[in-house]
Amino acid sequence: MRLPAKVGLPVVLLLWLVGCAINPATGKRQFSLMSEGQEIQMGRDADPEIVASMGLYPDESLQAYVQELGTQLAASSERPDLPWTFRVLDDPLINAFALPGGYIYVTRGILAHFESEAELAGVLGHEIGHVTARHSVSQISKQQIAQFGLGVGMILKPELQEYAGLAGASLQLLFLKFGRDDERQADELGVRYMSRVGYDPVQLSGVMAMLGQVTSDAGGGPPEWLSTHPNPANREQDIIRHANDAEVAMDPAMVKRGEYLPWLDGMTFGENPREGFFEGSNFFHPDMAFQVNFPDGWQTLNSKQAVQAGSPEGDALMGLTLAEGATPSAALSTFLSQEGLESGQPSNAAINGIPAASANFRADTQDGVLQGRVIFLNYNGTMLRFIGFGPADAWQNRRGAVNASLESFRPLRDRTKLDVEPVRLRVVTVSRDMDLATLLNREGIPDRADAVRLLNRIEGNPTLPAGRVLKLPVGGVWQGED
Predict the structure, then answer these.
(1) Which fold has domain 273-417?
(2) pLDDT at residue 201 greater than cutoff 60
(3) Which of 10, 159, 290, 297 is the most core-located residue (most Cβ within 10 A)?
(4) Residues 452 and 470 sit within 8 Å (Cβ to Cβ)
(5) What's the average model confidence in pLDDT over 223-235?
(6) pLDDT > 70 fraction of the chain, expressed in percent and rounded
(7) pTM of the model
């Protein structure tokens, strides 16, 4: 049955009228198809996935500090009764973001670059503003309308169904990126909330200046926060204007640099090699004490959940992840029982003395036939899955390199790799007047000057007065470019 073309507009208009209400934070009419309960549930469901994929920074005192500060700010907002949750993620990227329902995240990477508690309060207030203004909810509601229109299109043109997944993903990416108006609004709300609890709201503009400097030093590549938070040129000026108009609850307004910096002392800075690191195409994992050789020239990635490698042409992939199963054979049997998967003769041959079970496989997918090999290993009581695969027409050319990598898994015994430690921040007080170069030479880190300048917002080689407090990246294996 063919629907008349005019049916879409009245339905969308009806949904728009039903879904509009005054937002208490912004004072403006806002479109939403999601109740507050649904909003909270969405954040609650997504939170474990965020934690699993990025990890929590293992410092309970720091977590409690950020939670307490965030709760204080949220209590001053127009939605104080949400189940506000604030987390520090164990991630080196400069990032902060919010999920619907009051779930706020900051990374240790962005904490390292803050100069005061007021700056942290400003960023938390900004993210709280995204929640109170229901920016994500509004965008998701617009996506639902777009998806509704897409669904009507599917009825009108059934042949479009083949592309439904692609269109849906594209719409999601389009609508869930905050635009400049949302960012300006979140900045204004961040100024409002930090002012209400007594912080100097001008300090939020310093965060924007820092982000701009990070972008400049990275050769134009923005930090992660700016990749999802557009940064118009006049954003600093807008914040200062809002700050000048704000009524601050304390006189003088709080900055709390001295109270904030000690929280950073000992914090991991940059990538943590204890969780695995690459030297060329060779991967080493000190905490789990294993190593793997990937093919030369392949693109590699180490994340919290997997170690991955892809061929230069993109026609083969490998991945090493945790797995479940009482034994390698049992884990392999479960894997091979998947619908649409055919296997060769399984093998229980050990890999470099490690109990293992492996098999070649072939899988029919909507994108064509894949071929590959999978190995399950019981390594020191931990079940691992190491898999490589590619399109059938390319597998013959990739099979040798993939198998060599799969069979290169072995114990790590090199003490220089096993004992590697991360770079950590040390908060130091300058004992006497000296220039920056002298201080860095005294601390044994002259090769880290650029990072020190960025962390402490220093230019050139200034004379540092006695009593100046600085953040220095010390120890570990330096991966900077100084």
Answers:
(1) Protein Transport Mog1p; Chain A (3.40.1000)
(2) yes
(3) 290
(4) yes
(5) 58
(6) 79
(7) 0.81
Between the alpha carbon of residue 112 and those of residues 49, 93, 109, 230, 264, the distances in Å are 24, 10, 5, 21, 7
pLDDT for 114: 97
Confidence grade of residue 142 (pLDDT, cut at 50, 70, 90): very low
The string of pLDDT tens digits covering residues 278-287 is: 999 999 999 9
Please choose, from the candidates 292, 280, 285, the residue with its C-alpha nearest in 3D space to the C-alpha of residue 407: 292
CB 306 within 8 A of CB 275: no
Running DSSP on this structure, what letter comes out for residue 294? P
99-110 tens-digit pLDDT: 889 999 999 999
When computed from its CA atoms, the radius of gyration of the chain, rounded to whole angstroms, is 26
Query: How far apart are alpha carbons 2 and 320 in whole angstroms?
Result: 49
Neighbour count for residue 2 (Cβ, 10 Å) = 6
Query: Residue 89 forms beta bridges with which residues?
Result: 56, 107
pLDDT value at residue 215: 75
The DSSP H or E segment spanning 384 is strand 382-391
| Calpha distance 194→98 (Å, rounded) | 17
Mean pLDDT of 379-396: 94
**pLDDT tens digits, one per residue of 57-77:** 999 999 999 999 999 999 999
Which of helix, strand or coil describes residue 268? strand
pLDDT class for 318, splitting at 50, 70, 90? Answer: very high
- What are the residue ranges spanned by the domains of the chain? 8-264, 273-417, 422-474
What single-letter amino acid sits at 336?
Answer: L
Res 218: pLDDT? 59
Rounded to the nearest angstrom, the gap between the alpha carbon of residue 74 and the centroid of all alpha carbons in its chain is: 23
* CA 216 – CA 262 distance, rounded (Å): 28
SS (HEC) of the chain: CCCCHHHHHHHHHHHHHHCEEECCCCCCEEECCCCHHHHHHHHHHHHHHHHHHHCECCCHHHHHHHHHHHHHHHHCCCCCCCCCEEEEECCCCCCEEEECCCEEEEEHHHHHHCCCHHHHHHHHHHHHHHHHCCHHHHHHHHHHHHHHHHHHHHHHCHHHHHHHHHHHHHHHHHHCCCCHHHHHHHHHHHHHHHHHCCECCCHHHHHHHHHHHHHHHCCCCCCHHHHHCCCCCCHHHHHHHHHHHCCCCCCCCECCHHHHHHHHCCCEECCCHHHCEEECCEEEECCCCEEEECCCCCEEEECCCEEEEECCCCCCEEEEEECCCCCHHHHHHHHHCCCCEEECCCECCCECCECEEEEEEEEEECCEEEEEEEEEEEECCEEEEEEEEEEHHHHHHHHHHHHHHHCCCEECCCHHHHCCCCEEEEEEECCCCEEHHHHHHHHCCHHHHHHHHHHHCCCCCCEECCCCEEEEEECCCCCCCC
